[in-house]
Specification:
By secondary structure, the protein is α+β, with helices and mostly antiparallel strands. The chain is 21% helix and 30% strand. The chain is built from 4 helices and 7 strands; from the N terminus they run H-E-E-E-E-E-H-H-H-E-E. The protein has helices at 8-11, 96-104, 109-115, 124-138, and strands at 15-20, 23-29, 36-42, 69-75, 79-87, 149-155, 158-163. A 7-stranded antiparallel sheet has the order 4-5-3-2-1-6-7, with helices on one face. Strand 6 and strand 7 form a beta hairpin.
């Protein structure tokens, strides 16, 4: 039986949302690069509300690749928050979409293998953990417990199950 093996990014969800340490969190897959991005929202009244990601003052945020986004926006479940985000499309991160673009442009397979030899795909469990760490850093974590976590698997805007 000749069975084609699916790659991890083809079988994991493209979107998840949840709350960690009292803060809304969501993960989404980049449409072109097929990598995952993670976001944590802070409400009005949080000391980081309306701050730029490189101007957080007293916190040196540690998250994969560093923060790459800050801005206000409305999430369909959580409402309006100031969001901080990171992506997994940095040096040494494997980007399935970028590889596909290179293949379509005619780059030889041997060159692609060489280019991606030391790259790692950052999967959903990895990005979830990074979101937990980011939420902890942006929250008033002295009053919160690690057990206050909930991620929901969402497909086609329907909750499938809780994760974590």
């Amino acid at each position: 039986m000749n069975q084609i093996m699916k790659k991890e990014w083809e079988t994991e969800p493209d979107y998840m949302d949840g709350k960690f340490f009292g803060l809304p969190v969501f993960i989404r897959r980049h449409e072109d690069f097929k990598t995952l991005n993670g976001y944590v929202g802070v409400p009005d009244g949080n000391k980081y509300y309306e701050k730029d990601y490189d101007d957080l003052g007293d916190v040196d945020v540690e998250v994969h690749g560093g923060l790459t986004f800050a801005g206000g926006g409305t999430h369909k479940i959580f409402g309006y928050y100031w969001w901080f985000g990171f992506d997994c499309a940095h040096a040494f991160d494997y980007s399935p979409g970028r590889t596909q673009m290179m293949e379509q442009a005619g780059m030889p397979t041997i060159t692609l293998r060489s280019l991606h030899a030391n790259e790692v795909y950052r999967n959903m469990p990895y990005v979830q953990e990074q979101c937990i760490q980011l939420a902890y850093q942006l929250s008033d974590h002295a009053e919160l417990e690690y057990a206050n976590t909930d991620f929901r698997l969402v497909e086609n805007n329907k909750r499938i199950c809780n994760v974590g």
